[in-house]
Amino acid sequence: MGGLQALLHCGRPGAGARRRAHRPRGTVVRRRARVTRRRSSYRSLRSLQRDVRACRACVEAGFPLESLPVVHGHEGQLAYILGQAPGWVEGEERRPWRGRAGGTLRRWLDMDEDEFYGTFYCASVTRCYPGRSPGGRGDRTPTPREQELCAFWREWELRLLRPGLVVTVGGLAARRLLGLVRLGECVGRRFTYGDAVAIPLPHPSGASGWLNDPANRALVAEAAALVRDELDRLRGAGPLSPSAPSIRRRTGTDT
Questions:
Q1: 51-63: per-residue pLDDT in tens?
Q2: What CATH number did the domain enclosing 113 receive?
Q3: How far is 109 from 102, CA to CA, in rounded Å?
Q4: How many domains does the chain have?
Q5: 191-193 and 79-83: which strand pairing?
Q6: Calpha distance 120→161 (Å, rounded)
Q7: Residues 205, 172: contact at Cβ < 8 Å?
Q8: pLDDT in tens, 2-54
Q9: Would residue 96 count as lying in a domain?
Q10: Does pTM top 0.90 for this prediction?
Q11: 109: closest CA among 120, 125, 124, 95?
């Protein structure tokens, strides 16, 4: 923990951190004196990522967080994958999809780590580990306000990357980006999102009961096959897949 603690600026925790009823697993990120920098526009992914890594907007708004922002990806990647939030392992390592859920996700997609990280620009609805759920099962779901504070970064990533494939992982990511509410009605289908194909997946976390239904697991297999098909198409620069319902691009103010 020493390396992470050296990166954190000491100070008084926000009100939310003082009210926490459970013991944090990681180091609580403290309020920083300087204000998070957000430019009016970005011309390069590198400058955007630099500001994402320095972001403390949620801490400045009084939310308790237990890691610094997790950023991973580079120019030219074919696909963009959006999860809910980093887990504890991801927050410690500052690399996405490093825990058990990441291993499950890669098995679904039949990818090793090198192929997965080389293919996908990895993002999430919020970029810092939010801590454990007050109920003790799984991680805390980021509040709508936290989701809004992070939406700015996602919008600029998509503008700069212009990916051919967008994969959402979990119900929150599907709702936030695509406006899709029920996983059972969208997993196993493809949609058009601007110039990209969007394919929803459920969250691979063991805390999710959705995967206990064999019919839902069959939908996951269908969705994973769609992802692989779209990646093959992108590598071959084929035409946009047919019969995909169109989805309006959503902004940070959409709920």
A1: 999 999 999 999 9
A2: 3.40.470.10
A3: 11
A4: 1
A5: unpaired
A6: 11
A7: no
A8: 443 334 333 333 434 333 333 344 445 554 444 578 888 999 999 999 999 99
A9: yes
A10: no
A11: 120
Range of the domain at 97: 2-238
Q: Which two tokens stand for residue 181?
A: 């509410």
Beta bridge partners of 199: 167
Question: What is the residue whose two structure tokens read 């780590």?
Answer: 113
Neighbour order of strands in the sheet with 191-193: 120-124, 79-83, 165-169, 196-201, 191-193, 246-247
Residue showing tokens 């679904």: 108
For residue 253, being part of any structural domain is answered with no
CB 123 within 8 A of CB 154: yes
Joined together, the tokens standing for residue 221 give: 């297999």
Tokens of 68: 């610094």
Helix (H) or strand (E) holding 167: strand 165-169
Tokens found for residue 202: 């459920």
Q: With residue 116 as reference, give the H or E element that holds it.
A: helix 113-119
- With tokens 């400045």, the residue in question is 60
Task: Examine residue 255 and state whether it is found in any structural domain, yes or no.
Answer: no
- Is 86 within a domain? yes
What are residue 120's DSSP bridge partners? 79
